[in-house]
């Protein structure tokens, strides 16, 4: 694979790879480092990339594995990085609404962070990256039916935890 083919196949997915790395590592700088390392690994393997059905699926799998390795190799302290919440909040939103959105976002990040790794990955790929079930199957090696079940359970667990926390905070 030459430079032009690499640019065409690999570079367009780097945003997705970064978001996936940030999901696992919960730190912007570490996610950037992981992305750079994955891109370097892909570049060094560029001659073999044509033999893969989907370079994107390979890149996602490499990113996932690298992040899991990083989490296992160090006593990784999860830090909530809400620095990019200002992108989500539109101008004209009251400080009260910003605080509510920030609290809800932080709670959802914490809940999703407690999910088992397969649920977290599939939820992210489907709901954030908008992968099809077939693309997720290619990345994870699971069947479409397994993915649907895992996704349903992950969504239910997030929903239940969110509602339970909000009901508790409301004093119900």
Automatic annotation (TrEMBL):
Start and end residues of each RNA polymerase sigma factor 70 region 4 type domain: 107-157
Keywords: DNA-binding, Sigma factor, Transcription, Transcription regulation
This protein's record includes keyword Acetylation: no
DNA-binding recorded as keyword: yes
UniProt domain RNA polymerase sigma-70 region: residue ranges: 14-75
Pfam name, any one: Sigma70_r2
NCBIfam families: sigma70-ECF (TIGR02937)
PANTHER family on file: RNA POLYMERASE ECF-TYPE SIGMA FACTO, RNA POLYMERASE SIGMA FACTOR HI_1459-RELATED
Record-stated family: Belongs to the sigma-70 factor family. ECF subfamily.
Name by which UniProt lists this protein: RNA polymerase sigma factor
Species of provenance: Larkinella insperata
């Amino acid at each position: 694979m030459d430079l032009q083919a690499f640019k065409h196949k690999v570079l367009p997915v780097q945003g997705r790879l970064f978001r996936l790395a940030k999901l696992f590592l919960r730190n912007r700088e570490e996610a950037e480092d992981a992305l750079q390392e994955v891109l370097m690994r892909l570049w060094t393997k560029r001659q073999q990339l044509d033999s893969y059905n989907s370079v994107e699926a390979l890149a996602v799998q490499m990113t996932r594995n690298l992040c899991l390795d990083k989490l296992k190799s160090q006593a990784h302290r999860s830090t909530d990085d809400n620095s990019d919440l200002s992108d989500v909040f539109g101008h004209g939103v009251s400080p009260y609404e910003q605080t509510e959105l920030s609290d809800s976002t932080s709670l959802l990040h914490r809940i999703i962070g407690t999910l088992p790794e397969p649920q977290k990955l599939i939820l992210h790929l489907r709901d954030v990256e908008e992968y099809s079930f077939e693309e997720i199957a290619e990345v994870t090696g699971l069947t479409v039916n397994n993915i649907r079940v895992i996704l349903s359970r992950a969504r239910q667990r997030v929903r239940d935890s969110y509602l339970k926390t909000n009901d508790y905070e409301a004093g119900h």
